[in-house]
């Protein structure tokens, strides 16, 4: 039977920051990959309303991925501690 300290140490090592960042980032990336085609279609429809046409590059979508992953990483400590009510 393990002592409480050994069990706590095992739990802490299993919940290291890099593992949590990786696990927490996966749903964010998947959500972005699902949203990108929808956003691209909506942006194309909107841009087609204008007389002067411009092309839509993947740069805004990559920036949105970086931004949303960054926000998820910032919120990770809040998720680990829980809300402060």
Could you estimate the helical fraction of the residues in percent?
over 70%
The proportion of strand residues reads under 5%
Poorly predicted segments: none
Mean pLDDT reading: 78
Q: Element order, helices and strands?
A: HHH
Largest sheet properties: none
Which word captures the global form? elongated
Helices, by number, come to: 3
Tell me the total number of β-strands: 0
Q: End-to-end distance, in Å?
A: 37 Å
- Helix/strand/pairing class, anyone? mainly alpha
Rg for CA atoms: 20 Å
Tally of separate domains = 1
Task: Characterise this structure.
The chain has 85 residues and is mostly helical. The protein has one domain. Helices cover 76% and strands 0% of the residues. Helix 2 packs antiparallel against helix 3. The mean pLDDT is 78.
Topology:
Layout: H1 4-14, H2 17-47, H3 59-81
Helix pairs in contact: 2-3
Quick recap:
The protein has 85 residues and is mostly helical. The chain is built from 3 helices and no strands.
Keywords, please?
single chain, mainly alpha, about 75% helix, about 80 residues
